[in-house]
Amino acid sequence: MTNREVLLVFGLLAAVAIGAGAQEAGQPATQSTHLTAQWEELTAADFVTAIHQAQGVCLLPFGILEKHGPHMPLGTDLINARWVALHGAAEEYAVVFPAYYFGQIDEARHEPGTVAYSRHMQLDLLQETTDEMARNGCRKILIVNGHGGNLELLPYFAQTELQELHDYVVYVYWWDRRGGEGRPKQQTSVDMHAGESETSHTLVTRPDLVHMDRAGQESGADQARLHLPEDVYTGIWWYARFPNHYSGDGSKATLALGGYDMTAWVSDLAAAIRAVKADDESLKLQNQFYEDAKHPLETKQ
Predict the structure, then answer these.
(1) In terms of C-beta density within 10 A (0-12 exposed, 13-18 middle, 19 or more buried), how is residue 139 classed?
(2) Rounded to the nearest 5°, which phi and psi values hold at 126?
(3) Total-model pTM
(4) Cβ atoms of residues 235 and 57 within 8 Å
(5) pLDDT tens, residue by residue, 166-211
(6) Cβ atoms of residues 93 and 54 within 8 Å
(7) Would you say 35 and 49 are in contact if contact means Cβ atoms under 8 Å apart?
(8) Alpha-carbon distance 219 to 135, whole Å?
(9) Torsional sign, CA 233, 239, 245, 247
């Protein structure tokens, strides 16, 4: 990378780093106290203080174990989502749950290192996890999704929370805004998985795990092996287009692009945490809906 890229990234990330400090290499400190945001690092007594300081808001960074082209780690999605969660919590304090890799990834079962859980296990484990988080004081659980394969699973899970009465609310957060004033211009148009942007992001979060020299060893081109209308869906669509589980060209990644996106992502998540803290209506409406649903014939028409 060039000296100009390094200086640009330092400037872009300054707002995240200033005032946050560093508890350990690569981990931000919290904004107003010495309490870590990381659930697993808190003592039992400090956990109680942390939940109160967070106003009951807890983040569940959600990733997966899957191939990320020939050059990036299997846990890329969680690595990036948890990095953003910790830095977002440094701006607006929340408690951050430990590593959670248990989502939907059937489309990558043919690749080494992929761990794909059954449908019922994904939903049951997530339900028990959020229930246990709530039992420990998390009244507002913000799932920070880092994996595109969860884009159907997580809203479905949140919707099915209406089937039973809960004393907490599940929110689902997904950031994918590849635009904005001053964003470095991308060199590629195909960029859905382990390509230019995701590789750039990981150059910020864990550069030691990115093997740029391997990025060109496989093709990330769209194979376009299905010929169906756009409004017809089949589960094999991803394998039909990207059998190497690689979409785009990671060799085009830059630290400048990664720095821009990760700074924007952290800022956006911090704003989402603030909005969730201020939300006093969702739980009230959720409980009212549950009571109304017991007597649908009494619902005013």
Answers:
(1) middle
(2) -65, -40
(3) 0.90
(4) no
(5) 999 999 999 988 788 999 999 999 999 999 999 999 999 999 999 9
(6) yes
(7) yes
(8) 47
(9) negative
